[in-house]
């Protein structure tokens, strides 16, 4: 910048800005947000629109708007399938929540967290503490660090209250095949994984979760969330949900199309139910958002219904209050299904949850405030923006038969939550454009032809498609065309890859005669029932550095669909290469996240320790075995560990010293590192101890 320009800029500075210290003082007085204009939480068009639609009960409008202007309470959910969920709940209620009683922060009394009345077993809680207060307040430091640590380890999930509702209404069980169509960022997916692992004694449930998202980058956020739960029954894929491909599986040597027992259809939406946390919605809200999203939402829901098994359940949900995105989509889907779908009555499934029934009459409004009550009144020039599926059915009998009142609309002021909409659909028979219906789970399933994904096509004519024979032939041709090696599940062809983003490494299953596995089997004395065919790596060449594991059902899906689906991630890491371990005749150590899966099959390398030993392992920086009880030390010697030094000799390098010192099992060492970062460890010890028995049984 030249001298003259600098001079002009100094002359244009506002009065009082010359003194940097004074200006900084003014900014400090204004607080953290002093330099930003406050967003006015008003939108006249929003108020006019929803008052006209009467979605809020008479006399409650002021409470509704007041709730929308208040910050959203923080909510957390304790991971339900972990064996120590009850211990974490006990620790929260009797330790941390008690410390919050009669506590004041910045002159404001802190409300003790309360359980969500409708969530089972008190595993979900909400509080008026904002994230800013949790992070900045010294009185809440221990509580905040406890929450952070447990969130990282997968024991606690921070999740909005209304977001927990769809998985609960899906009513998933461990044997169900589940599709999450729009899964990122993954909070609902983690709930579904928990439901699969309801019985922790079963390492490989029969069911699985396929979590899909159209955004490639958000898929990796989804992977991060799912990995916290350490499940071999999750697969993350990257596709447009409105055209997600049909998958095939091998059933007794015959290719059959995969139909899902449960489908979660949490579609993209305008998000006006999230105004309490996304305050930008206040100034950006317009009815145009809903009009533009309606078609996509209907296509996604239609595609989900096509892939649902007969007798299965699909949950459609949005974080929008707009009937164009809610009841209009459900009504159109029900009308096109011709009786194949029906709304389930779930009014008694979540006792304690307050909700409003779905509405049966609504109008369509353009962004400039023009209203239309029926399709015939829409000018031709508006037909690209407004579609006939946006209006309620005209026939009163058909409208009544749909039972739209069975939909659930959650209003923010009823239970201090965000706004939300949920509808539960049950498939009674095949969709009308399918040639033959799928069968119930456990019966032989027939192949069906693929139906249309564009609802507009269904309005004009019956849709033709490829028949069963052609689908089967195509599936078999993919398997037999010789383009891929046995056990190698690569990504789609390169010409498709450019549409999706990063290119993924292939999934390569370990051959039965691979020399890599016998040393592992011998070292850990694996049970003969161990499913070694489910082990895979992510490389076709060079040394295999990590071994992953999937359930046999996901193995079936991977082997039969590598050319039609883009898999981002699947399985769980169970072994990692450790070159220094070759002196013990095994080059692979256990991976922390794979312990829950492997433990039922391991019969060796397990040390039984006392509670005092566990305390030493969790609290000391270098827990040498000499510091443990004589019984534990004896077991370690029997396992073949070398001699122990109280301290590593200073003259030797770290590598040489570690080879001469008794090694803490890698899983314990990692668990100890995690525990060591928790302040107030004695109070939280009961939680940490529960993670240890997988690798070292308590005496």
Automatic annotation (TrEMBL):
Keyword S-adenosyl-L-methionine listed: yes
Recorded catalytic activity of this chain's protein: cytidine(50) in tRNA + S-adenosyl-L-methionine = 5-methylcytidine(50) in tRNA + S-adenosyl-L-homocysteine + H(+); cytidine(49) in tRNA + S-adenosyl-L-methionine = 5-methylcytidine(49) in tRNA + S-adenosyl-L-homocysteine + H(+); a cytidine in mRNA + S-adenosyl-L-methionine = a 5-methylcytidine in mRNA + S-adenosyl-L-homocysteine + H(+); cytidine(34) in tRNA precursor + S-adenosyl-L-methionine = 5-methylcytidine(34) in tRNA precursor + S-adenosyl-L-homocysteine + H(+)
UniProt keyword terms in alphabetical order: Acetylation, Methyltransferase, Nucleus, RNA-binding, S-adenosyl-L-methionine, Transferase, tRNA processing, tRNA-binding
GO biological process entries: tRNA methylation
Compositionally biased residues, Basic residues: 1-11
GO CC list: cytoplasm; extracellular region; nucleus
Active site (UniProt): 319
Cellular compartments annotated: Nucleus; Secreted, Extracellular exosome
Cross-referenced InterPro entries: MeTrfase_RsmB-F_NOP2_cat (IPR049560), MeTrfase_RsmB-F_NOP2_dom (IPR001678), Pre-PUA_NSUN2 (IPR057285), RCMT (IPR023267), RCMT_NCL1 (IPR023270), SAM-dependent_MTases_sf (IPR029063)
Domain SAM-dependent MTase RsmB/NOP-type: 64-428
Top-level taxon of the source organism: Eukaryota
Family, similarity comment: Belongs to the class I-like SAM-binding methyltransferase superfamily. RsmB/NOP family.
PANTHER family attached to this UniProt entry: NCL1 YEAST -RELATED NOL1/NOP2/FMU SUN DOMAIN-CONTAINING, RNA CYTOSINE C(5)-METHYLTRANSFERASE NSUN2
Protein name in UniProt: tRNA (cytosine(34)-C(5))-methyltransferase
Organism: Acinonyx jubatus (Cheetah)
Gene behind the chain: NSUN2
